[in-house]
Amino acid sequence: MPRIYVSSRYRTPNSQSTSDFTFPIRSGALEFNQHSTAVVDSLCISNVFDTVIAGHNTKLYVRFTDATAGTRVDNVVQLAPGDYTLTSLVVELQTKLRAAMPTTGDFVSAVLTVSKIEDSKLQLAIAGANLAAGTRIDILTFSQLRLGALFLPWTGTGADALDFNDLQDACSVCGFNSGIVYCAGGAHKTSQHVSFQAYRNLYLHCSSEAESVGPRGESSIILAVVVGNTTRGDIITLNESYTAAPVSLPTAVSELRFQLKDVTGKIVDLEGHDMSFALATQ
After folding, report:
1. 90, 218, 244, 281: which has the fewest Cβ within 10 Å?
2. Is the pLDDT of residue 154 over 80?
3. Helix/strand/coil for 32
4. What is the pLDDT of residues 25-37, one digit of tens each?
C-alpha cells in the first residue's frame, strides 16, 4: 500500500493557512480497498508558541467586592500576548490588576501587589487603610469557570463579558487552576504552579473520519501531538504512531484536508511555518 507524504508547503491555493490546508495527491487519485485506513507515523512542526497567545489564553476573570458599599465589579483582565518569565509575568499581572481595581469606596488608596513564591508560584496581597472586612479581590479559577455557571452571576458586559463557551483563560499560565484565589486585607492565597506552555497537546484533524473520539466528542482526530516536551524555537517531532488513530480512506483519494487544533477546537497559528507528516496506508 502506498505511503502518502504530506507537507503544507504544497497545499492548494484555496487553503486557509499552513495549519488549515487541503493537500492534493499530485500523482492523481489513489485507489484503495473499501476498508483501507491510514495512520500518521511521522510528523514535524515548529514550536512557535508564546506563553500567552491572543484568542487562546489572555483572560483572567476578576471580581472586586466592596463590602461597605455592598457592590461587586466584575472585570476581565487581559494579559498582553508574548513570551514570559516568572518575573515578567509578575510585573504584567500586577500592572493589569492595579489598572482594573476600583479607586473608590473601600478601595481608595489601596495598593495591590503580586509577588513570586518559591520561583514557581504567585501570591496576591492588598493593603489599605479603608479596606473593610469582606472587601476582597477574587480571581476565578478554571475549576470555577469550567462548571459553566457561577453561584453569583457574572455582571461584566462588553469587553468584560464572560463567555463560558470561549473562556480564553490564562488560569494555567498563572497557576489559578483550582480552589479559590483571593486577597483581602491581611489575607491572601498562593497560586498553584505557573506554566509557561500555552499548549500541552495539539490535535491533527482530517477530513476523513477517524477511529477516535476527541476531548469534545470529535471523530476527526488522527493524531495527538505532544507539545509539552519542547519549548519555543524547538522542532516538535513524532517518529512513532502510538498517539495516532487510523483514518478511513475513500476508495479514490485526490485530496485531503488537515487542520491542527488546540483542545478547545481552535485552529493553531503556526506563523506561516510549514508542517509535514507521513500517512502509512494499510
Report:
1. 218
2. yes
3. coil
4. 866 666 767 778 8
Q: How far apart are CA 21 and CA 12, in angstroms?
A: 7
- Write down all domains in the chain, each with its CATH number in brackets: 3-49+199-281 (2.60.120), 59-188 (no CATH)
Residue type, 232: R
Averaged confidence pLDDT in the chain: 91
For residue 116, what are the CA distances in angstroms to 51, 59, 72, 158, 252? 17, 20, 28, 32, 58
**Rounded average pLDDT over 245-271:** 89
What residues contact residue 25 under an 8 Å CB cut-off, 6+ apart? Answer: 4, 253, 254, 255, 256
Identify the weakest region by mean pLDDT among 13-17, 25-29, 35-39, 187-191.
25-29
Q: For 157-198, what is the HEC assignment? A: CHHHCCCCCCCCECHHHHCCCCCCEEEEECEECECCCCCCCC
In this prediction the pTM is 0.90
CA-CA-CA-CA torsion sign (241, 245, 250, 255): negative
- Nearest CA to 204 out of 255, 243, 248 is that of 243
Q: What pLDDT score does 185 carry?
A: 85
Measured between alpha carbons, how far is residue 119 from residues 52, 126, 193 in Å?
A: 19, 21, 9
Q: Are 197 and 14 in contact (CB under 8 A)?
A: no
